Amino acid sequence: MFNSQHLIAKARADTGLTEFGSDYFREGLERLVGSLNTEAHLNDFGAGALQAQIIDLLGQRLRVENWFTRHPEIEDEEIVTPLIGLGLPRTGSTALACMLGEDERTRSLRTWETMNPTPPPAVDPDSIPPRIALAQASMERRTILFPRMQQMLPSTATSPTECQLFMAHDFKSQIFQAFASVPSYVEWLEMDADLEPTYRYLRRVLKLLQWRSGRKQWRLKNPAHCLFISALDKVFPDARYVMTHRDVTQVIPSVSDVYFELSSAYCDHVDAPAIAAMNIRSWERAMRRMIAFRDSGHQGRFFDIPFVGFMRDPFAHLYALYAWLGEALTPETRVAMQNWRETAPRDKHGRHEVDLAAFEIDLTALRDTFAFYTARFPDMLGEDA
Q: 228-265: per-residue pLDDT in tens?
C-alpha cells in the first residue's frame, strides 16, 4: 500500500531537506496514492518502481525549493514569449522539438535536466556530464524493460523532451496514467484539478534552469497542455503556440499502444480496451478545449503544422514557422537540423505497428467522435505515408 506521509518522510530523509514550497502538490499526491491503492492492481515490481518514482519526484521538488531558499534572486528571472508545442500526441511533435532544439539561440528542456534539474546548469557545469550519464543509464534500463519504446519514442539523454516530469513534481501530470490504471485520478486531473499552481511551479523551475545562463527564449512542448490551456495561458500569457496535427485514426491507436507498453511491466493484466477508451475520452476533451480557446480570440497565437507534410518536407514548415515568429532560420541552424534529421530518421529502430483488435478500436466510431476536430482543421489531416 502507498502512504503519502511515508513517501514524504522518505524523500525528506533521502535529501536532508524539509521544505516543499507551496502545499498545492499535496492534493494531487493524495489523489494519486488513493487511486494507486484501489485501482491500479500493480505487481510487486510496479509497486516498487512507482514508489521509488514518487519519492524521487518529491526529492527533486525539495532540491528545487532549496535553491530558491538559498538564492531568492532566482525569482527575478523572466520567462519571455516562450514557444510552446502542443496538439494531439504522436503527431510529430518530438521530431519538431528536436529540430528546433538544434537552434543554439533558444533553450529547450533536455531529458537529463528534467530527471535531475539541480544544480542549475550554468552554476555547476561540471555536474552536467555525470547527470547526462545517469540519464542515459536510466534510458538504457527503460529499453530493457520496455523494448518497443525505441520504435515508439526514440530519444536520448540530451534530446528535448516534455515538461511532464516538472508537472509531476506537483502531482498533476499524465505521466502516472501511462504506467498504471488510475481512472479516478485521471478524471480528477482532467475535470477538477487546479493547474494554475502547477504551471506556476513549472515557470519556477524554468527560472532556476536559466539562472545565470543568459536569457534565451524557451522552446517547450507537451500535448497534455491542450487539456489545461486556460490555466497555461494565465501563467504564460505571452506564449506563442505551434500545434501539430495528424489523423486521429493514427493518433489514438499509437498513444494507446505506448501506454500499454509502459504499463505492461507494472501490471500483470493490462486492460488494453480501457486504455484506448481513456485516451479517446481525454483527447476529445483536449481538442474541444483547445478549439474553444483558439476561437475565443487567440487564433493569431497559433502556427499549425501537419504531420504528413512535416515528415515529407520539414524545412518548408520550419522556414514558415520562423517567419511567423519574426526570426531567421540561419544557415548554421539549418545544417544542424539537417544533421539531426539524417541521424534520427523515422522508423530508425523499426516501424511501430499497432494491433487494433487488441484495443477494440472502431475506426469509424473514432472518426465520428473527432469529426469536430477534422472539420476544424481539414487541411492538416492527410493520410500517413
A: 999 999 999 999 999 999 999 999 999 999 999 999 99
* CATH at 251: 3.40.50.300
Is 222 inside a domain boundary? yes
Structural domain harbouring 373: 4-380
Kindly state the cell numbers that stand for 136.
Answer: 542515459
Q: In sequence order, what are the residues at sequence separation of 6 or more whose Cβ sits closer than 8 angstroms to the Cβ of residue 142? A: 149
Residue with cell 499497432: 354
Assign 345 a pLDDT band (cuts: 50, 70, 90): low
Among 193, 361, 191, 186, residue whose Cα is nearest residue 263:
186
Average pLDDT, the chain: 94
For residue range 152-204, what is the model confidence (pLDDT) as tens digits? 767 889 999 999 999 999 999 999 999 999 999 999 999 999 999 999 999 99
Question: Is 385 part of a structural domain of the chain?
Answer: no
Task: Assess if residue 320 is contained within a domain.
Answer: yes
- The count of domains in the chain is 1
Whether 51 is covered by a domain: the verdict is yes
Spatial neighbors of 156 by CB under 8 A, at least 6 apart, are 111, 136, 139
